[in-house]
Amino acid sequence: MAKRPFLIPGVDKRLLIKDSIKAMPDLTRRRFITGGASLGALTLLTGCDVVDGDTAEELLKKVSKFNDAVQSWMFNPDALAPTFPESAITKPFPFNAYYTLDEAPEIDAADWKLEVRGLVDNKKSWTLDELHALPQVTQITRHICVEGWSAIGSWTGTPLRDFLKLIGADTRAKYVWFNCADSQGYNSPLDMCTALHPQTQMTFKFADQILPRAYGYPMKIRVPTKLGFKNPKYVVAMEVTNDYKGGYWEDQGYNSFSGS
Questions:
Q1: In angstroms, rounded to a whole number, what is the distance separating the alpha carbons of residues 16 and 138?
Q2: How many C-beta atoms surround the C-beta of residue 53 within 10 A?
Q3: Which segments constitute the Oxidoreductase molybdopterin-binding domain (predicted)?
């Protein structure tokens, strides 16, 4: 029986292939192009026959999931993101969000607590004063936005892995999932390997000053090995879990791993 043709009403096959290739990590992308980038090859890769717009979207999601798996496999937990001297800091450091600065959350430190949930021994909530009392380190690292720009900033806070150890987190779990205070309910998961990376930080200060509202007061998660959208701001809760709960941008098709 002859294989039925691909029917893609309203979907440009060339653009679909182009978008799929962009979603692949570099090594996979090179091999895929070398082997002949085609819709048939994507079907073999994902097991998804593209017959309409919905299955085209499903194919892209499967490519994204494949990308996440490859990047996770390639991730070196001992490799550090580059650090920079103070002279390299970007001034002014840009504000970036899917809302304006006037719409950014305004949080009263007296009312704020970090909620801890999931696979941890100690589920107490933490006040800002308690978190500020923890040992802190400073890193000058580059923030890389998925939109193509980057900026270097100075960030001070507690390594996330130290906090996870302090609360008795099960570091065999797959994810640390963060909830934020913005009006859209921003949330994002970190794979546990990245959460335990030495540069992944619970950030309380920017440029040696209390973290400004623009950059996520009272706490953001600074992850220099990830793209910017994997650095949640205005964090109000974290959960250690084996369940993949999605995320604000991840649910819209962005790669969950999105890092080096």
A1: 43
A2: 13
A3: 104-249
Q: Which are the contacts of 78, defined by CB distance < 8 A and separation ≥ 6?
A: none
**Nearest Cα to Cα of residue 110 among 135, 129, 131, 134:** 129
- Give the residue-averaged pLDDT of 19-28: 46
- Report pTM: 0.73
Using alpha carbons, select from 246, 186, 203, 255 the residue that is nearest to residue 226: 255
For the segment 26-37, the average pLDDT, to the nearest whole number, is: 42
Element (H, E) at 211: none
pLDDT category at 44 given cuts 50, 70, 90 is very low
- pLDDT for position 260: 55
Residue 177 in contact with residue 187, Cβ under 8 Å?
A: yes
Q: Where are the alpha helices (DSSP H) in the chain?
A: 13-22, 26-34, 39-46, 53-74, 128-132, 160-166, 192-195
How deeply is 56 buried, as exposed, middle or buried, from its count of CB atoms within 10 A (0-12, 13-18, 19+)? buried
Q: What is the dihedral of CA 151, 154, 158, 161, to 10 degrees?
A: 40
**Which DSSP symbol is given to 153?**
E
* Tokens describing residue 96: 């970036």
Q: Are 194 and 225 in contact (CB under 8 A)?
A: yes
Query: Tokens 């390639």 label which residue?
Result: 74
Q: Name the nearest CA neighbour of 156 among 108, 214, 109, 210.
A: 210
Q: How confident is the model at residue 146 (pLDDT cuts 50, 70, 90)?
A: confident
Euclidean distance between the first and the last CA atom of the chain, given in angstroms as a whole number: 44
